[in-house]
Design brief:
The complex is a heterodimer of chains A (about 60) and B (about 325). Chain A is mostly helical. Chain A has 3 helices and no strands. Chain A is rod-shaped, with a radius of gyration of 26 Å. The relative contact order of chain A is 0.06. Chain B is α+β, with helices and mostly antiparallel strands and about 325 residues long. In chain B, strands 3-2-1-9-10 form a 5-stranded mixed β-sheet, with helices on both faces. Chain B has a 5-stranded mixed β-sheet with strand order 13-12-11-17-18, with helices on both faces. In chain B, a hairpin with a 5-residue loop joins strand 4 and strand 5. The longest helix of chain B has 17 residues. In chain B, about 50% of the residues are buried. The chains are: A mainly alpha (about 60), B alpha+beta (about 325). The interface between A and B is medium-sized, with 20 and 24 residues.
Chain lengths: ~60, ~325
C-alpha cells in the first residue's frame, strides 16, 4: 500500500514537472506570430490610420 | 488617464504626437532661463525669439547639441514643461516613445530616458530617428525590399537602409543644419570682418544657401557688427560664396550617405536604383542638396511629403501600435 502511494506521488510530481517545463518553454510559433504582428503593424494600411488621424487632427486645428 | 505620447526631441525642434490625436506640439527646442534665480522664463517659440537678444541675466539656450543632451537638468525642465503643455500632470503619467539619433551613446540614452521619467513619463522608450522617419515617410518597410532614408536634422545626419521592419545598414554623423549656420557665421566673420548671430546665419541659409548651383541665384544683405570698429555694418553675400562656405559640411553629409550605400547588401542595393532614396528632416530642405547627393551617388533622391514631421509621425505610429512594435525600441534589442 505504502509503495503504491509513493509511486503515485512520484508520478504526480513528474507530471507536474513536465507541465511546468512545457509552460516555461516558448512555443515554436511565438517568434513567427510576434514577427507577423510586427510586420502587419508596419503595413501601409495600418500606417494609413495613424497618418489620417494626424491629418484629421491638423485640419480640426485650422 | 493620460494619452501616450511620441516625442521627436530634436536639436532644432521638438514635436509631440498624442495617441489617438496627432501632432499636438511643434516648437523650437529652446529654453530661456533667469541666470540668477534659475527660473524658466520661456520655452519654445517664445524662447527662440530671445536667442542673442537677451540682457545679461537671461540666457536662451538649446539644451541639445548634436542630438545629445548637453545640459541634463535644463533638458529635464524643458521636457517637463512640454509635457505639462500637452496635459501631463503628476497624476496622469503617460508612456512615452522618444526619437533619438542612432549614434548616441549608452550614457546619452540613459540621460534621455531618465529626463523623460523624471519629467513625468511612466515609461520612456527610445527609437532611432531614421527608423521612425521611414515609418512616417510611408516607405514600404514591411516588405523585403531596400528602403533608404536620409534624415538631416539640426545636429545629426543619419542614413539608414531598412528592410522587413528592421535596420540593415546605418551611418550617422554629428553634423547637421546648425553646422551649416556655424559655417556661414565663421565665413562672414573671416571674409567680411563682421560678426552675425546664429539666427541671422540661419536666415542667410534659408534665403540663399544651396548645395548645388541653381538657375536663379539671389544675393542677401546681411547686417552685423564690424569686428574692427564695433559699429553696425551691412554686407552683400552671394549664393556662390555661401555655397563655398558650407561645402565642407555638405561634403561630410554626402560622404556619410556614400558610406551607408557601401554597407548595404548587394541584393538591396539594386532596389535603391529603382526606388531611390528619401530625404527627410529640416536640413534636407537646403536648396540643391537632393541634386548634390544624387550626383555623388548616382542614385535618385526624392523628398518626403512630410520632411519635418516624418520622424514624429513614425514614432506616433509606434505609440499607436505599442505592443506590436515594441521590439523596435532601442532597449528591446540589447
Amino acid at each position: 500500500m505504502e509503495i503504491f502511494v509513493v509511486v503515485v506521488l512520484v508520478l504526480m510530481v513528474l507530471v507536474a514537472v513536465v507541465i511546468l517545463q512545457r509552460r516555461g518553454r516558448p512555443r515554436q510559433d511565438d517568434g513567427m506570430n510576434t514577427f507577423r504582428r510586427h510586420i502587419d503593424a508596419l503595413s501601409p494600411e495600418a500606417r494609413r490610420e495613424s497618418i489620417d488621424r494626424a491629418r484629421r487632427h491638423d485640419e480640426g486645428k485650422r | 488617464m493620460a494619452r501616450d505620447l511620441a516625442i521627436d526631441l530634436g536639436t532644432a525642434n521638438t514635436l509631440v504626437y498624442m495617441k489617438g490625436k496627432g501632432i499636438v506640439l511643434n516648437e523650437p527646442s529652446v529654453i530661456a532661463l533667469n541666470r540668477q534665480t534659475g527660473e524658466v522664463l520661456a520655452t519654445g517659440r517664445e524662447a527662440w525669439q530671445m536667442i542673442g537678444r537677451t540682457p545679461g541675466y537671461i540666457v536662451a539656450v538649446r539644451p541639445l547639441r548634436g542630438g545629445a543632451i548637453t545640459d541634463f537638468e535644463i533638458t529635464e525642465r524643458m521636457i517637463r514643461l512640454l509635457l505639462q503643455r500637452v496635459g501631463v500632470s503628476r497624476f496622469t503619467r503617460p508612456k512615452v516613445v522618444i526619437c533619438v539619433p542612432s549614434a548616441i551613446t549608452e550614457v546619452e540614452r540613459r540621460a534621455v530616458t531618465d529626463a523623460a521619467r523624471r519629467a513625468g513619463a511612466a515609461d520612456a522608450q527610445l527609437i532611432e530617428q531614421p527608423m521612425a522617419a521611414a515609418i512616417g515617410a510611408d516607405l514600404p518597410i514591411d516588405e523585403p525590399i531596400g528602403n533608404m532614408v536620409i534624415d538631416i536634422g539640426g545636429g545629426t545626419s543619419e542614413t539608414a537602409v531598412i528592410s522587413l521592419g528592421g535596420i540593415v545598414a546605418l551611418e550617422a554623423v554629428r553634423v547637421g543644419s546648425f553646422d551649416i549656420d556655424a559655417a556661414i557665421q565663421s565665413y562672414v566673420r573671416r571674409e567680411h570682418g563682421i560678426a552675425v548671430g546664429e539666427r541671422t546665419a540661419e536666415e542667410v541659409k534659408v534665403a540663399i544657401g544651396s548645395a548645388e548651383a541653381g538657375p536663379d541665384e539671389n544675393q542677401a544683405e546681411v547686417r552685423g557688427r564690424d569686428l574692427m570698429t564695433g559699429l553696425p555694418k551691412t554686407v552683400l553675400l552671394t549664393a556662390e560664396e555661401i555655397r563655398v562656405a558650407i561645402d565642407d559640411v555638405v561634403s561630410s553629409i554626402t560622404a556619410s550617405v556614400v558610406r551607408c550605400l557601401s554597407k548595404a547588401p548587394p541584393e538591396l542595393a539594386q532596389d535603391f536604383l529603382v526606388r531611390g532614396m528619401y530625404l527627410v528632416g529640416g536640413g534636407g530642405l537646403l536648396r540643391g542638396l537632393a541634386q548634390r547627393i544624387e550626383r555623388e551617388t548616382q542614385v535618385p533622391v526624392k523628398m518626403s511629403n512630410v520632411p519635418l514631421e516624418a520622424v514624429v509621425l513614425g514614432a506616433g505610429h509606434c505609440i499607436e501600435h505599442y505592443d506590436a512594435l515594441k521590439s523596435m525600441f532601442m532597449g528591446a534589442r540589447r
